[in-house]
């Protein structure tokens, strides 16, 4: 009973239509003699009131320059009343008023993934005070640096770093990763991640407003309110469809001389699928993308994404990981692990990005680093350190050559850099580093080409040789290097195959993402400037999600077109049958409801389906290299 009352409050016209129908049926059977007349008068009066409301709404729409399909419903109501088919007119009224409820259901079903993100947004946080006490505070009151307790099963309220030794988190709500991800002390834990089975302590690195999950919520709120230009395309079918329907109805009346045929044709010529199925498809597609770790900001973007003919990629952080990693260890007179352990011990306390990469590699190999270290930092050149009593010099060729003999210069590939090492006055080897190409970059490019993208280009500020090397590895032959932000903007403006999709990740990519037909930001690292200027934000650090987004958008548009075609096609078939007298008005009204349902169910197919080669099989489950066999393979290759 409660649900009935709630439904009645939300959809009063539907409830009133059902009530009028029940009262009319009761009068028809309960009042001897006068029952049919009472029922006819009641239904006719109610239908005329609804028709008047529809007519006034049409006038208001016409003043705004909008022309819809409601004119067919209005004419159908009036024509059925004129020929005495008052029960059919009531079914048409129910179809019109019930369409709102049906559309709400379909849209709510399609929005599931989007609304789930919104509803789960953290509201409070457990602030850790002195002596282990905890105070619950509003998430908006959390400041950077505060210690927070995250209980089992709770969502991390703000972006933070893990204070405890290790913990596992469910990041599916933000990245789409279905398996728990292991984080270790000092690792970043983004807001929105759900803690596992043990309470953990984290230290806030951002406020709520600046955290990943709140930014996602803002994107989702914008996406949920969007209406695609493509949806208005469905509205443009209204005029020709209306004219065709009126022509068929008029011809049936003229040929048979029976005005009932006119009414019967128009009863089945009220294609709500034309108005409902397209927006439902788009909302479902956006929800599908969100489930896959991609936020599409509006329906118009989804439509443009489906038509992309040119894809442009930034190099650093997009086709590559965007951070240096050890590529080779070239020892002299010792093993690779021994050399790496010495260098990492010397670099352990350095904040330099290259030093951190070397330490990460050593840690990933499980090497023990010495703590008996004193360091003399030489800015711009390297460092001298005493590690367990041994003099270790790490840095440039010139620095190491000052104290070590026979220093060798290794042959470097484009994009690779070297760190020379001397130990106790002798050359000990070289560690090379490079910004590694993403494992899924080449597959992503090939998938885009297979889906219909005709032209793929690299736009980067890096040197031509480095850019050419990366592009060659991933299968791109158009490389435009040494481009500053304005140069990237000019390059995108000059591309002829439209729409153009630009994929980038950094602050310097924000201008070109804004001018591209579709700007895609690799937003997993919280590059807010890029994310805010982009139309699409990839929430997980996998470039394959770009190809997934294109696949989802193309499938969504295809389903939307199918739904529109299905609605029009079935309505035309029913109109022809009605013109020959095969479908009575009351039956036709019911069949039209079936057509509505079929078209909407077809539109909801955009919620599922394949997206191509997903990257799930290749995902790393832990932020520590030792958790993946991939690192062991890399280790073999390095030495």
Automatic annotation (TrEMBL):
Residues 121-221 form the P-type ATPase A domain. The chain crosses the membrane at residues 12-31, 38-59, 237-256, 262-284, 564-587. Coiled coil: none annotated. Pfam families: E1-E2_ATPase, Hydrolase. GO terms for cellular component: plasma membrane. InterPro entries: ATPase_P-typ_cyto_dom_N, ATPase_P-typ_P_site, ATPase_P-typ_TM_dom_sf, ATPase_P-typ_transduc_dom_A_sf, ATPase_P-type_domA, Cation_Transport_ATPase_IB, HAD-like_sf, HAD_sf. Keywords: ATP-binding, Cell membrane, Membrane, Metal-binding, Nucleotide-binding, Transmembrane, Transmembrane helix. Belongs to the cation transport ATPase (P-type) (TC 3.A.3) family. Type IB subfamily. This is Heavy metal translocating P-type ATPase. The lineage of its organism: Bacteria, Bacillati, Actinomycetota, Actinomycetes, Micrococcales.
